[in-house]
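Narrative summary of target 7.
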Amino acid sequence: MAKVNFTAARVDGHKCPEGKAQAFLWDSRAPGLGLRATANGAKAYVFQAKLHGESLRVTIGDPRSWPLDKAQEEARRLQVLVDDGIDPRNEKAERRAAHEAKQAAERRRAATVADAWAKYLEDLRTKLSPKTKKPRSAIYIADHLALAAPGGDLRKRGGKKTARGPLAPLMPLSLSDLTAARVSAWLESEVATRPTSAAYAYRMLKAFTRWCGGHDDYAGIIPADCCTSPKVTGALPSSTTKDGDSLQREQLAAWFAAVRTLQNPVQSAYLQGLLITGARREELAALRWEDVDFQWRSLHIADKVETETGRIIPLPPYLASLLLELKRRNNTPPPVRRLRSLETRGEKWEPSPWVFHSLNAATGRIAEPRYAHNRALAAAGLPHISLHGLRRSFGTLAEWCEVPVGIVAQIQGHSPSALVEKHYRRRPLDMLRLWHDKIEGWMLEQAGIKFEPKQDTPVLTVITAA
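Modeled conformation, tokenized:
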């Protein structure tokens, strides 16, 4: 190949002839240095040589960035490597790998809890749970978002600002700063104001640190004992259930009397439904009319454990009558004044798809029934009982009816606690209905409520042998 003495003018004037993809110009002073010009007008200094009998070519760079003397110097350096039996391409790849490793180490050192938390949530959304082999529920993901939320946003109702999540103070920290001392100090401050939320946040944080330990980008950054150190576990609040958070048999009459006289029939039916079904608060609140089967007296509930299929439980007669009344009210058009108001805003009235609907809630369904329940408790002269306490009451009161434990667990949606329950018990709905009707009837009897199903209320009668 012909060589010329490279000058700035020759480098600038070199072009690719028409009809060719690329053209080369070779320097006579620096061995192996060439100038490549392509059909689209791009230029680059290249180095070409033979190593162990095989040709190799390495791109040096654009002439606009590489002065001629620097390009010639780089070509001579590469030639020295070839003379020593070193492939310049490997040397370049090693430098790139070292640079990328350094960059990765810098990113690891600079990674914050918030950065890793975002990737952790993405994993939770897109991958199956290793324990259940099923996707995580939307409620579980929402809990993680709420725990790390900075707060300060205006609520849709009331004008108040949202509170920050328990994990929010940890989010700006570097992962390496998530030490046992730091976690212990955080936990002590959170436990002092909201122990239950703090304990829940700690469990989520512990799972997060385990995930980081198995992730390539974050492995080895967080100290191994950040959540298991005695400093941290010693700050955890007691996990025992609060005494008295359950209705007693002798309290049923006062409780039912107060709840049944609430002005809002939706809140009244919802609270009674929590006690009669033993469902979780959000499970019952998310009930739609399409989930209610009055013919076969069943409810299809979005289950916390069976996240994909949910669970089907019986609909006892008294609760069915409450829901039928709600359905009648839901299907009744509002007054003419409200219909005209909707038309003025370009809206059209339609029955709500929610069983426990609410005109004021942003979601269209009941959102905060605690206030109504607290009013009922105060009117009845009963001690405070949480909404979850009503679920606990169902499981406790069912023992008065001598209901098998597995029946209660299946109605409430508890995970099977034994091998036999998990693999060898498949109770049909009619068997559950037999016992569920008995539980509801016993509750109404203790409350002094005489209930007789109306003629238009579909009821399945269970006939027992004499």
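The first helix runs from residue 8 to 13.
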